[in-house]
Amino acid sequence: MRKELPLIIAGVILVSAIIWWHYDSSVDVKIVEISAPRSLGVDTLRGDSVNQIVIVVWNNESKAINVKLETENAFVDENGKSVDTYIVLGYENGAYTDMVSTRDEITLQPGVNEITLLLGYKVTGDQNVHIRIVNNEVILDEESFTVDVLPPEISVELDYDLESIGDLNIYNIDAYVLNNGLGRAEDVETTISIIDPDTKEVLASEINDIDVPAYSKSSFSTWKDSHAGVIELSSGENSDESYMPAQAVVKGKIREAYIVKVTAVWEDQIAEKEMIIPGNSSVTEVEL
């Protein structure tokens, strides 16, 4: 036992040294300030400064130090999983000119360093963001803050204009998804249907997926300058016009009427509106 004691003591000293090296550091680097938004809209990485945070780091060493900026919940994917985000190294004329992943090392110069980091979320709710400055697997400093990630707020707009050509009355239907929220609505499923008011049969319809940025509106039609739908009514023969690329197209006779229904769905939000054409009477309007 006496012969083994020096080996045991040496082992304890070695383990202690490894633990001390891993969890302690003589490198004097501190996070002195984090400028971050308290709330942010659900979104992917944007091309502006809305989702940027600025981290002020003090390097009290006399030389440059290479570090990694480890993050938790700075970027969260659609499954609620925290993934790597980006550090902005260059920004010019409204666009990022240079970025590196948080997997990469960056260099802290002696004195004050400002680091711009991107936040991005595909889920809503409170996100506890944790940031660590790491050098050679040693945590030099760490801080946390909370961001409230807000959803979009969707509604729908439905209207039409009348174009008369000879025996034809052409009702050009326009529909839009409005987003009055801070979050971006991605992959909103839109449906426009033209319905027989007596039988409730859907005579024509079109379904699309569209994106609606915060505080904006997007057309149901994914084609530029195209209407969402068309109803052509004639006192004689109907035309041979297809009205493509619109697919929600119905041709009938003057004095006939049709229900036009539009629906937009984003996650648990549903917005609907109905209108009878011809006429301005809105028979149903539902926004949930």
Topology overview:
Elements (H helix, E strand, L loop, with lengths): L4 H19 L5 E7 L3 E3 L10 E8 L5 E8 L2 E2 L5 E2 L2 E7 L2 E7 L4 E3 L2 E8 L1 E2 L3 E11 L2 E13 L3 E12 L2 E12 L5 E11 L6 E11 L3 E4 L9 E6 L13 E6 L4 E9 L2 E9 L6 E4 L1
Parallel strand pairs: 2-13, 5-11, 19-20
Antiparallel strand pairs: 1-3, 3-10, 4-9, 4-12, 5-6, 7-8, 7-10, 12-13, 14-15, 15-18, 15-19, 16-17, 16-21, 21-22, 22-23
Across the major sheet, the strand order is: 1-3-10-7-8
Uncertain spans:
19-24, 280-288
Tell me how many strands there are.
23
Structural class: mainly beta
How many individual helices? Answer: 1
Helix-strand topology string: HEEEEEEEEEEEEEEEEEEEEEEE
Percentage of β-strand residues: over 45%
Quick one: overall form? elongated
Biggest sheet details: 5 strands, antiparallel
Q: Note the gap between the termini.
A: 78 Å
Radius of gyration: 30 Å
User: Mean pLDDT, nearest integer?
Assistant: 88
What share of residues is helical? under 10%
